[in-house]
Amino acid sequence: MSQILHLPPARGAVDADDFKALFRHHPAGVAVVTLRGHGGPVGFTATSVISVSAEPPVLAFSVAATSSSRPALEEAGTVVVNFLAEDQRDVAARFATSGIDRFAAGDWHPLPTGEPVLEGATAWVRGRIEERVPVGDSLLLTARAVRVGHGHRREPLVYVNRGYHRLGEHSRLT
Amino acid sequence: MSQILHLPPARGAVDADDFKALFRHHPAGVAVVTLRGHGGPVGFTATSVISVSAEPPVLAFSVAATSSSRPALEEAGTVVVNFLAEDQRDVAARFATSGIDRFAAGDWHPLPTGEPVLEGATAWVRGRIEERVPVGDSLLLTARAVRVGHGHRREPLVYVNRGYHRLGEHSRLT
Hints:
2 copies of one chain form a homodimer.
Chain A: H1 16-24, E1 28-29, E2 31-37, E3 40-46, E4 50-54, E5 57-63, H2 70-75, E6 78-83, H3 89-94, E7 108-110, E8 116-118, E9 123-135, E10 138-150, E11 157-160, E12 163-166
């Protein structure tokens, strides 16, 4: 006869909800990663973009298994990371929404190499994907920067605790 | 007879200074990564800590070749990531300063497993290092969370453009 045992989490285990809560309070700049997919442009909002090395110039970001962009990312050779400005909350939300055409608004143009660049971003960088490290069902990717572009100089968009923030003199610690 | 040629950067090359400037304007929460070294506690300020996967709970961060913590990180099996609060600018600066005893202030205690936990952090997570990905001279590491701790609830510290910022209602976009 079987018996259902309600065991405590294994020693050394951290609950997924606890882990998410931890990072929910860790602020991050907001980017949209775009690429050229087989069926058209692909893109998703990412708060996980970091610089890994300046020489050579390499960045990293992660993507969840559940992301609709994941299949395209598995095949793409290059991506563009668009760094969002404080007036682009709507863009951040749109590129995090499922089941819509995220590019329908038309506020982008393709590079000669096909990757979309979003209008209004503070800056963007085109990168050649170098490493794909599977982490559970997620993927950690590194990309070597091959081209950089700049938009109008504006304050960056920050995301923390499910809300957007604007940095500037009002937030500076002096 | 040899001749020195002043060539333009190779097509597809991004200058290290341009790349650094790009990420200087990308905001990030501030953490101090600590570990148990052979000669005592080791730690360094990191603005590159990201969540990669919640299930299993895995984070990532990078460390430069020039970091004095690099040798200890090559050997360590575990680290603690301490998330800094808005009143810990001095801690962030101290753990980014070379040639000093970063732990002399005594504002920390060791876990039973030896890694230092900093007093006053908003939260911390102990992680078992899983992957070490060499990227140029830098190292990209992943760590699986095995224990989480919480401090007093305070606003997080944010770093951008060589300055520290505090988030709160004053910075929130509504």
